[in-house]
Amino acid sequence: MKKRERGTRKGFTTGANAAAAARAATIGLSTGEVPEELESLLPNETCVKFIIHDGTVSDDGQIAHAMCIKDAGDDPDCTNGAHLTVDVRLIEDKAGEVILKGGAGVGVITMRGLGLEVGGPAINPVPRKNIEANVREVAAELLEEYGLEVTISVPDGEDMAKKTLNDRLGIIGGISILGTTGIVHPYSTAAFRASVVQGIEVAANQGQDTVVLTTGGRTEKFVIAALPELEPACFVQMGDFLGPALDACVKEGIQHIIIGGMVGKLTKMAQGEVITHANRKAVNTDLLADIAKICGAPDDVCVEIAAAETARFAAERMEDLGLADLFYHALAQRTVDTLISRYPDDFDIRVMVCDFSGHQLADVS
After folding, report:
1. What's the whole-number mean pLDDT along residues 30-49?
2. Mean per-residue pLDDT over the chain, rounded
3. What is the DSSP string of 34-51?
4. Which of 131, 280, 289, 342 would be a feasible disulfide site paired with 306, CB 3.0-4.6 Å?
5. In sequence order, which residues have a C-beta less than 8 Å from that of residue 251 and are 6 or more positions away?
6. Architecture of domain 11-184
């Protein structure tokens, strides 16, 4: 048997699974029996087969229940294995209406800026439309006489949400029901990029004029401790997506940008990279050697730095010479200068540098 290539299997979003369960439960109300498998329409207009679990119809025929287990494929998603559970109930005097609700484990919106009603469930617009489309497609006769209340819940969703950025976005009590195509692509950079832009939009919609962009968990922890006066929504973990983050800041009219980073990522920024992933382009050690020379490093050390593979080597050599403070300050200043040259007059930039232990090394604006 041929071994499947690791890391390439696609999966399906929480939205797609919720839509399939909703379709199955609605069929149960119509026929008296919830199917054990069915084809469900994805937002991208393709049909995919889903296995349905726990299908039941109440004795009085008023409520049907169905559940679909999310398979995220090879994507390391904290919602992989989530039980997308749907209860569909007949409503008198609401003929033709499909009312979508969030149950236990589905987050509640508490902040403006997500395009969803504050106080309502965290079910994004595309999944909402897809869920309703699937329900309506199999419930034409039912809807002539009744309305349908569709309640989505996710057992353990509140615990899953602790591994997401939902609380930062003002989504409490559970996960979000997401998915623009219905398909999960393994290790999707598009999904992360979208979450970065969304975080900036939330900050802007809350009236914040400052966004703090960080490259990872350690730098985020560092800047949160260093800037306690700022609201949680100001902090956005951009990862490697500097360019998309800054473009979103321009679009949303953010006036003040603070970047928290360590030497390696900041060197990428200083050399003009807008995507700072390690696989995209090597650190420009010639740039670091140039900065080291300006800070007073002797020529032989500058040659060593230029020949090295990492930015961390440059930092360690400058520390050996007692020139670390000058070096970190100069690197941060070079980063500011490079970004300002790319975004003149759009915003002001402050760069805060920390080490791997979260200690501040420089602060330049």
Report:
1. 95
2. 90
3. --SEEEEE-TTS-EEEEE
4. 289
5. none
6. 2-Layer Sandwich (3.30)
